[in-house]
Amino acid sequence: MAAPLESTLRPFIVTLWPGAAEAVLVESSACSGARRRPTTAADPTKPKQDRGSRAGRASTRLRRYVLHNRCRYLITFTYRESQWDPLSASRNFARLVRRLRHGIGPFPWIRVIELHPNGHGLHIHMLTDRAVDPALLSTAWEHGAVESSPPVELSTVGLMRATRYLSKSFADFAAYAGRGHHLYETAQGFQPQAVHFVASSRDEALERLELIMGGPPCMERNLSDYAPGTNGRFLAWRPTRRSLEARPRSR
């Protein structure tokens, strides 16, 4: 006796992040006929040894936030006296952000705490989407020096470079601080929004994605190369200059 049609269909579960210009297609192991919320598959842009780890997952979320918000201005905050407590550093940064918001209003930012390579304790990186007045930064940060780096290129390559720089020490910080501390924090209200849908075939999924994104992806990779047993694809689009220059609206 033939199996019911709904038990043999294996649809593609699709998750798209339009602002980050990437999507994941995962072939469902079964379909009961109900629409399931798609899940995030493995990230093929990270080394295999990092994938599935806390640092690897954090890097994936960080990348999407950076791409979505076009964060390319890096600011580093250091301490006059050695600071070794991550909780104190987090509180110092929270106070800094409140002062900045008072001066320039809400804005997207990413905060990463790192161990200083020369043994001076901790320092803080902030990546944001705009240049901030040096005088305002110096006034808002009362614990030491402030250094603003030149902005990275407004392109996918430039934004990915900024992402890699911020996430380079995630594993080291996780080992130092333990699981009670976040590897990074972001401003609320600027999170990249995901679009979820289920397609009955790969062709249907690609057709819908191309309609949403305005064209075919510039990169497509097989998820099984990075997550054995996962039947699906990772896709990415190359944003246009106009789309990169268009500032996302906060929620």
Structural account:
By secondary structure, this protein is of the alpha+beta class. The protein folds into 2 domains: 5-46 and 191-245, no CATH class; 66-186, Alpha-Beta Plaits. Helix content is 33%, strand content 20%. It is built from 8 helices and 10 strands. The chain has helices at 5-8, 54-69, 86-104, 134-140, 156-167, 170-177, 202-213, 241-245, and strands spanning 12-17, 22-27, 73-77, 109-115, 122-128, 146-148, 185-186, 195-199, 219-222, 232-236. A 5-stranded antiparallel β-sheet has the order 8-1-2-10-9, with helices on one face. A 5-stranded antiparallel β-sheet has the order 6-3-5-4-7, sandwiched between helices. Helix 2 packs antiparallel against helix 5 (156-167). The longest helix has 19 residues, at 86-104. It is elongated and about 60 Å long. Residues 1-8, 30-42 and 47-52 have low confidence and may be disordered.
**What overall geometry do the principal axes of the alpha carbons give?**
elongated
Report the average pLDDT across residues: 83
What radius of gyration results from the CA coordinates? 21 Å
CATH topology of the largest domain: Alpha-Beta Plaits
Spatial sequence of strands, sheet with the most strands: 8-1-2-10-9
Uncertain stretches of 5 or more adjacent residues:
1-8, 30-42, 47-52
How does the major sheet shape up? 5 strands, antiparallel
Beta fraction of the residues? 15-25%
Structural class: alpha+beta
Order of helices and strands: HEEHEHEEHEHHEEHEEH
Tell me the number of strands: 10
**How far apart lie the N and C ends?**
53 Å
Discrete helix count: 8
Task: Determine the fraction of residues in helical runs and give it as a percent range.
Answer: 25-40%
Please indicate the count of domains.
2
